[in-house]
Design goal:
8 helices, about 190 residues, alpha+beta, three-stranded antiparallel sheet
Amino acid sequence: MRDWLRPSQVRWPDAEVGPWMLTFTWASVDGRAECVGVSLALVDKGAPMIVTSTVWRDIPIRTLIAQARQARFEESGGTIAEGATEQDLLDQGIDPSWLDHFGAISAPWRESQSGRPRKTTAFYREVAAVYSSALAEGGTQKPLLAVQQRWGAPKPTASRWVRAARDLKLLPKTGRGRVGAQGDGRPTNSRGTK
């Protein structure tokens, strides 16, 4: 098992003493950390208690999984990736490339958002990462299609997101018809020549 998917443990109903310990088992599902198992054990040996269906019904499993996920997100630098700007890090003498690192390692733990994604710098950084990764694969997947598939977005929406990532200088400018190439702003024909 990879270390980033190590089990999470939470005491319940009291976060300090329990008396129960829940252990959440994680697996990578489509690149996202998902809870695939829960176990329950008594940690306060001084007060023997029996596991009953009533005990299981009373445990707020969904809430506790969300809390364990949030703890892993924070441990992996997710709050830094979403809350800090490159200038914030430069002001603290930290290399801004760490934002991409924290964003990448915390992404599997991000709470899934229903509906449309929030348009933050962290979101556009992720768009740029997906686009760049597909571009680096050398044609196995078109970059814009990779963005579309990652968020289930239509082509015009994915195009706007990529354009916004370029405007934020998270992706290089391109010439017309030249995906991922540094352009000089002059139009090109369909073969990519000027």
